[in-house]
Amino acid sequence: MAFNLLNAVNNLFDSNLLNKAAAAFGESETDIQKAISGTVPSVLTGLLSKADSADGLQSILNIAKDAGSSGILSNLSGFLGSAGSSFSGLTSMINNLFGDKFGSIANIISGFSGVKQSSATSLLNMVAPAALGVLGKHASENNMSTSGLASFLSSQKDSILSAIPSGLNIAGALGLGSLSGVGSKLSSFFSGAESKVSHAAHEVKEARKPNWLVPAIFAIAAFALLLYIFKGCGGSNEAAVEPKHDSAEMKHEEIKPAASAEPVRESLKVKLPDGTEIDAYKGGIEDMLVAYLNSNDAVSKEKWFDFDDLNFETGSATITQSSMKQVQNIAAILKAFPNVKIKIGGYTDNTGDSVANVKLSQSRADAVFAKLKALGGEKQLDGAEGYGPTHFVASNDTEENKKKNRRISVNVRAK
């Protein structure tokens, strides 16, 4: 399975570490999780924004490899509370390292997630070295040169940029006209990377330090690099459309199954018993559900129908306006089949923390339940349940298959 940098960094922040962070910072675990969902792609976007020159790539490669071998990835909890005494110098010098840009980044993460700005600052202190450590470990294991790093980051760009939650203005914090400026610079550089980037790896050797000092020294170096990254992010104002933020979470934002090549879907009118006709697609949930309700097939708890045009706002359980058409169609079907009762199920892929995934799937199932209830289907709804990363309809080996597993489904309990 292809290595995904965003997922690898996110996976470091499991429920255990999130619990510890929440307790250490005096925040709720939910708010900490939301803050992490914005902090990780923001830090990685900062790295991408600097990876548009040979010098920038070489700097990132050197410090990332040092990070990967420092042991910091196994001691992230060292940044929390008194356990992180060896990191105490970071807090006092962080503003000097990043200046106004660091404060802006911490501020937007605070506003986005609801955590205190001091908590957002502390999370940045953790995520930045963690991200560099993951990148460095992967680069070392694959013996990457700067051109190899250029190619790798190019392959990760879309995943990273699409993971930035809506409402998180990281482009403004980085001094960019838009995030598409990052993509444009990367594309331009990577297209000529083989001829422009030196293949000679620059190894940095340091004297042995006591084990507790290694993570602290690396973390300071990591933030120095990120100061360099964020300081150099202000020169691009290339006009282009912002990338769509439609991947989860936790990159889990688009619920409908996705095909590798979008086929042209055949529109049709689905006629209901009460004479109503609804607009749908051949093979879509409306078409399949009505055919089942009109059949003599027995009710089964194993038979589920997946919404195929239902999406949520990034990182939330808010149904997008464009998705309401399909929700309204399901409400119309319930009205036309008054004896039918259904249950709503929510599912995710296996990326990220399973507990958080169950919570997200429950919230989204509840949101669909609430909309159908408001549309008059209350007596026909037999509950909503979030199953999280279970009952997969595809393997979780590609983004395409993961999208298929991130879904909301309907099970008929009576007809």
Short overview:
By secondary structure, the protein is an alpha+beta fold. The protein is 52% helix and 9% strand.
Structural class of the helix and strand makeup? alpha+beta
Helix content: 40-55%
Query: Got a strand count?
Result: 6
Global shape: elongated
User: Distance between termini?
Assistant: 43 Å
Give Rg in angstroms: 24 Å
Strand content: 5-15%
Low-pLDDT segments, ≥5 res = 82-97, 193-210, 234-254, 256-260
Strand order of the largest sheet: 3-6-4-5
Total separate domains: 2
Describe the fold and architecture.
The chain is of the alpha+beta class. It folds into 2 domains: 5-231, no CATH class; 267-414, 2-Layer Sandwich (60s Ribosomal Protein L30, Chain: A). 52% of the residues lie in helices and 9% in strands. The chain has helices spanning 5-12, 15-25, 29-50, 54-68, 88-113, 117-141, 146-162, 170-173, 180-191, 193-196, 213-231, 285-293, 324-336, 354-377, 399-405, and strands at residues 267-271, 277-281, 304-306, 341-347, 381-388, 407-414. The protein has a 4-stranded mixed beta sheet. Strands 1-2 form a two-stranded antiparallel ribbon. A hairpin with a 5-residue loop joins strand 1 and strand 2. It is elongated.
Annotate the secondary structure layout.
Elements: H1 5-12, H2 15-25, H3 29-50, H4 54-68, H5 88-113, H6 117-141, H7 146-162, H8 170-173, H9 180-191, H10 193-196, H11 213-231, E1 267-271, E2 277-281, H12 285-293, E3 304-306, H13 324-336, E4 341-347, H14 354-377, E5 381-388, H15 399-405, E6 407-414
Parallel strand pairs: 4-5
Antiparallel strand pairs: 1-2, 3-6, 4-6
Helix pairs in contact: 1-6, 2-3, 3-5, 3-6, 3-7, 3-11, 4-6, 4-7, 4-11, 5-6, 5-11, 6-11, 7-9, 13-14
